[in-house]
Automatic annotation (TrEMBL):
PANTHER family xref list: CYTOCHROME P450 2E1 (PTHR46300:SF8), P450, PUTATIVE (EUROFUNG)-RELATED-RELATED (PTHR46300)
Ranges annotated as spanning the membrane: none
Lineage: Eukaryota, Fungi, Dikarya, Ascomycota, Pezizomycotina
Keyword Iron belongs to the record: yes
Protein name: Cytochrome P450
Length: 633
């Protein structure tokens, strides 16, 4: 391509014909390679992949100069080869091109988020956090499960006022992450594979089936909120807020936010974003505490001194700057979206004498941005002090307000910045604060030699949203008093859930198996199992054989929903039947020996709704740490 005098192409590695540098990009932790190149070619450089230009930015200043200050031409999104209508379809706001649909959807998203944030997210993160802490106490080795339950249940409540869709949301959302991630589906790297017809393309078949399932889930959820509103018992939610505007007597207000179908997708995307991302920093917090016990002690000391033994609530945020600094530093130390979500530039542009060609994909390389030594000295070290001490360039006053997550580079740039920060901020403040208040998290010790068992430093999953691969640690409750408090907090959360169960009449539950119709016919999807058989899923047995949690060699997602049992299998239990097992055991197979006695409990079926295939149970749980004590759950 001919350049005007004085203009040059961006620096970057030499490209091979046609494939560019595809062969150099590792399947795992690709961001480390892109960061390595930034050391060689500078804070802005380009690579080619199958003919398209990718620009990588590792400086916050340059990202702002282009993506924020020149937002007029830098706010588009690239086409995702494995989801080729992502720019136009309107199903996923975050992936839409710079279109009128995107502008409308972004406004609606912002309105719903704002309304909910003003009401402190209806206390949902707090209620779910209390449940989460107790589950962590019962079995910290299942932390991946408890964290995913926390994030998906919280965002389900926010979106639809109920936790019921949470499990299915996890399933469909994880599938979407694979569909769109460069390392999740081959056509995203070898882009011409997108032309393979649907009947021959395993990627298209899989995505079509997933999409159909997701569509059914979102429609059922919206229907549920409508029914609950008609019965005057809907809990607050994004969809409820939207439907209320539809009931306004003011015609302008009624039409302002678009139609129901669009709102369904906007809220669906918000739920997807919430279920996907927030687990990453919660897991990274546990990793950080294993490596930096001194910061755990400092954080605990702040919480104990300021709150006199109470567990942090959202109202305490102004008083706990160190907790906010830990939240922010965890995100900086291990960025949840290390390669960023790419923008696309719509016109040729010149930056400092370099050409950025129209159509190039622009990546704000979040991993590189957080390693800029001029802003983050000693960047590899987890150091919350950089947000609290005036000696650091990132310090900001007043400490009642800063540090916070608003405007943080890790949530993107310009007109496409993340819209979920109020949820992220509250979820992380409560979970990290709750964990520090309740537990000493530390490396496990070998029972015989007493030596510490090593924990990895930076082994993360490879998809667009990166999470630490499973590691073992101890989470020791800090005192007997805290244990009692945790149980009381959990009882409150369990009561909420029992109430919700009563309200769930009319909600369409999904079976373990369901038939999904799509273009190529019908497919039987095993939802329960499916969740654990994604090749990149951290629980996936083949990929991480040593990292599997439970006695069956495979992690059972429903295992510890002890408080109420929602069983969706075909057996038809009768009220009054009692059996021993854990609450996810089939009552039709009571004789099956439970190999793990600790999980056993007395379960009695109280009520059965055959149409919904829901049982409500009463279960007597052994409280393991107080021998001989029993508790009704
Ligand atoms: C730790 C959690 C999260 C992180 C690190 C994160 C990060 C990001 C990033 C990097 C982007 C792209 C920004 C850009 O293109 O410049 C983004 C976009 C977005 N995020 Fe988040 N996010 C998180 C959680 C959430 C949550 C809970 C929601 C729920 C509402 C959400 C909603 C969105 C939306 C709607 C967009 C798309 C904005 C647009 O394209 O116009 N995010 N997020």
């Amino acid at each position: 391509r001919k350049m005007a005098p004085g203009i040059q192409p961006l620096p970057g590695p030499m490209n091979l014909p046609f494939i560019g540098r595809v062969h150099d990009i590792p399947a795992k932790a690709s961001w480390l390679k892109f960061y390595e190149w930034s050391k060689e070619y500078g804070p802005i450089y380009q690579t080619k992949m199958f003919g398209s230009t990718h620009v990588w930015i590792s400086s916050e200043q340059i990202a702002h100069d282009l993506l924020s200050k020149r937002a007029l031409i830098y706010s588009d999104r690239p086409m995702i080869p494995n989801l080729p209508d992502n720019r136009t379809s309107g199903d996923y706001l975050a992936l839409l091109g710079r279109t009128e649909t995107w502008k409308r959807q972004r406004k609606l998203c912002s309105h719903l988020m704002h309304t909910s944030a003003l009401a402190s997210l209806h206390d949902y993160p707090h209620r779910e956090r209390n449940r989460f802490l107790y589950l962590m106490y019962r079995d910290p080795s299942k932390y991946l499960e408890w964290i995913e339950q926390f994030t998906s249940r919280t965002v389900s409540r926010l979106s639809w006022g109920t936790t019921h869709p949470a499990q299915m949301l996890r399933h469909t959302t994880f599938g979407l992450l694979e569909t769109i991630s460069p390392s999740g589906a081959l056509p995203n790297i070898v882009s011409f594979l997108r032309h393979v017809p649907a009947c021959l393309s395993p990627w298209k078949k899989k995505e079509n089936a997933r999409h159909a399932l997701e569509d059914r889930l979102f429609r059922a959820n919206v229907g549920f909120v409508g029914q609950q509103m008609a019965a005057h018992r809907a809990e607050p939610s994004f969809i409820k807020t939207f439907l209320e505007t539809k009931q306004s007597t003011d015609e302008k207000e009624r039409t302002k936010w678009g139609d129901m179908d669009e709102a369904m997708h906007v809220v669906g995307l918000m739920a997807i974003a919430g279920a996907l991302t927030i687990g990453s920093p919660i897991q990274s917090y546990l990793l950080a505490m294993c490596h930096y016990p001194e910061w755990q002690r400092k954080l605990q000391s702040e919480i104990d001194t300021v709150l006199g033994g109470q567990c942090p609530t959202w109202e305490d945020r102004e008083k706990l700057p160190m907790l906010r600094a830990v939240v922010k530093e965890v995100i900086r130390w291990r960025p949840p979206v290390p390669t960023g979500i790419p923008h696309a530039v719509e016109k040729d542009d010149i930056y400092n004498g370099y050409l950025i060609p129209a159509g190039a994909t622009i990546h704000a390389l979040e991993w590189g941005i957080t390693r800029d030594e001029s802003m983050y000295p000693d960047a590899e070290t987890f150091n919350p002090l950089r947000w609290l001490d005036p000696a650091y360039p990132t310090f900001r006053e007043p400490l009642t307000q800063y540090p916070n997550l608003n405007g943080f580079s890790q949530f993107g740039f310009g007109r496409r910045t993340c819209q979920g920060i109020p949820i992220v901020e509250q979820d992380l403040f409560l979970t990290m604060g709750g964990l520090a208040w309740a537990f000493d998290v530390r490396k496990k010790r070998d029972p015989i030699t007493g030596t510490e068992i090593p924990v990895h430093w930076n082994d993360y999953t490879p998809l667009l949203i990166a999470k630490p691969c499973r590691f073992d640690f101890d989470a020791i409750p800090r005192s007997e008093a805290k244990l009692h408090q945790m149980r009381a907090m959990y009882d409150g959360a369990a009561r909420d859930q029992a109430q919700e169960m009563d309200d769930a009449e009319g909600f369409e539950l999904f079976g373990d198996f369901m038939t999904v119709e799509h273009g190529e016919g019908a497919e039987k999807v095993d939802v329960g199992r499916h969740l654990h058989h994604h090749p990149h899923h951290p629980y996936y047995p083949q990929q991480h054989p040593e990292k599997i949690g439970n006695r069956d060699g495979e992690y059972d997602a429903d295992e510890s929903d002890h408080d109420v049992l929602i069983n969706v299998r075909d057996s038809s239990p009768e009220p009054g039947l009692s059996f021993r097992g854990d609450s996810s055991t089939e009552p039709s197979e009571p004789s099956e020996p439970a190999s793990d006695k600790e999980d056993e409990e007395e379960v009695k079926i109280l009520q059965v709704d055959k149409k919904l295939r829901v049982w409500k149970v009463e279960s007597m749980v052994t409280v393991l740490d107080v021998p001989g004590a029993w508790r009704w759950a």
